[in-house]
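Final report, closing paragraph on structural work. Over the funding period we assembled a curated collection of sequence-structure pairs, and we close with a single example.
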Amino acid sequence: VSSSNSRGLYKPKSDAIGLYVDKTDDYKLLHIKRRRGRMWVHVYSSMFDSWHKITFANKLRCWRGKPIWSNGTFCKGVLYFLVNCFIENKGVMLFGFDVESERFRLKTFPRFPHAYYDGNLVIVHKELHVFITHGLPNWTVDLWRMEGESWVKLWVFPCIQPPIILSCSITHISSTGRFLVVSNDGVANEIDTTKKGVDCFLPLVWF
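Its predicted structure, as stored:
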């Protein structure tokens, strides 16, 4: 779907994307493009096979610089992005893109006193949740659920000795109470929430 003017050309280390379906059942792709400290946001429509620019995004000054973006997680008409701004001492921020109004809005996000924490958005039973890792040098993992404009903590997992969950991404959840943690170098571990302590962490063979 990329075009001759570079729309849709995705760079994994700098850009972010999100997929969603609007109320007309049009399957769309939102592309956040970052180059040399500048940002552009465009939306691709599969129904009309065309791109259009989201001009509102240029007004968000906090997007400039070198924040680390997650890809989008779609839930109830909103495409959510986590933005890691620790380089600029702003912590983790959550933005929501309303797919009907095509406007971004800064959302609330759980805060922690630790110097570093990170989050991974997931959908559980059609509700937005976030796994948050925090607490160097040993990591703790919390599971939170968004309720309206606030967050409710659901689970607190035991502290984990590095390097099991260091620099990780929560990727999959099953209905049996297990989920996968995949490190940035591709090492996968399964966490079974029905068990306690170190017995709940199981290494997996990753294909």
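The chain has no helices and 17 strands. The longest strand covers residues 27-35. We thank the funder for supporting this effort.
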